[in-house]
Design a protein that fits this description.
Layout: H1 11-32, H2 43-68, H3 73-92, H4 96-118, H5 123-128, H6 137-162, H7 169-190, H8 192-197
Helix pairs in contact: 1-2, 2-3, 3-4, 4-6, 6-7
Length: about 210
């Protein structure tokens, strides 16, 4: 017997599930990193923080199942990649794995979304499930296409910041906070007018009924 789907959850809960693991990684790295090493990365701090990141990601997955009543395919894939690259980071003691993990995530989602869009399938709808209630298939198609290209851009941008010859681990980490996160929020909110035009938040009429 599966857990019932819980739809009335707070937006703050959604933010905690989606961004909590990343926040945990930031906080852990600052706590574990030795003082006086502002411009240098510390392998021990990175690996310990990676362990916290992996644990927080698994907890977010469990919380999603418990609170939302389900786990979206996107969260499943993200968890697998975080744990995979995290394990490689801890085993090899090489921070490069955790630097390049976002590239793999962005590239994977980009390919999935753009292939689905090319085939006329709104892949993002299946990955996020009911995240945008009422959105029409046309709206999902446009959203899938736009996020597909945006994820591709993010994959390339992450590789620029992840290159050790150009940026330190600290600089890469700061870029996640002051570059990637603001861009993600701006890109998301820029779609609101389009989403509203395509039925976001509108209740679908039961079959056979017409709106008065």
């Amino acid at each position: 017997m599966t857990a019932p789907e819980r739809k009335n959850h707070s937006p703050l809960v959604n933010l905690a599930i989606d961004y909590g693991p990343v926040a945990a990684f930031f906080v852990a790295y600052r706590l574990f990193k030795p003082s006086g090493a502002a411009s240098l990365s510390d392998v021990a701090a990175v690996t310990k923080s990676t362990g916290v990141f992996m644990a927080a990601t698994v907890l977010a997955l469990i919380a999603s199942k418990w609170i939302r009543g389900k786990v979206s395919p996107m969260l499943w894939l993200s968890t697998v990649l975080v744990c995979g690259f995290g394990a490689l980071t801890m085993i090899s003691q090489d921070e490069g794995w955790i630097r390049h993990k976002p590239t793999a995530v962005y590239a994977l989602f980009s390919v999935m979304l753009l292939i689905g869009w090319a085939k006329g399938k709104p892949t993002l709808k299946y990955l996020l499930e009911s995240a945008f209630d009422g959105l029409s298939d046309e709206g999902w198609m446009k959203l899938s296409r736009n996020w597909g290209w945006f994820f591709l851009f993010f994959a390339a941008l992450n590789e620029v910041f992840a290159y050790k010859g150009w940026f330190t681990f600290d600089q890469w980490l700061r870029a996640k906070l002051i570059v990637f996160m603001p861009l993600s929020f701006l890109f998301t909110f820029a779609h609101m007018p389009m989403l509203l035009r395509h039925g976001l938040g509108q209740e679908k009429q039961p079959d056979g009924e017409k709106a008065e």
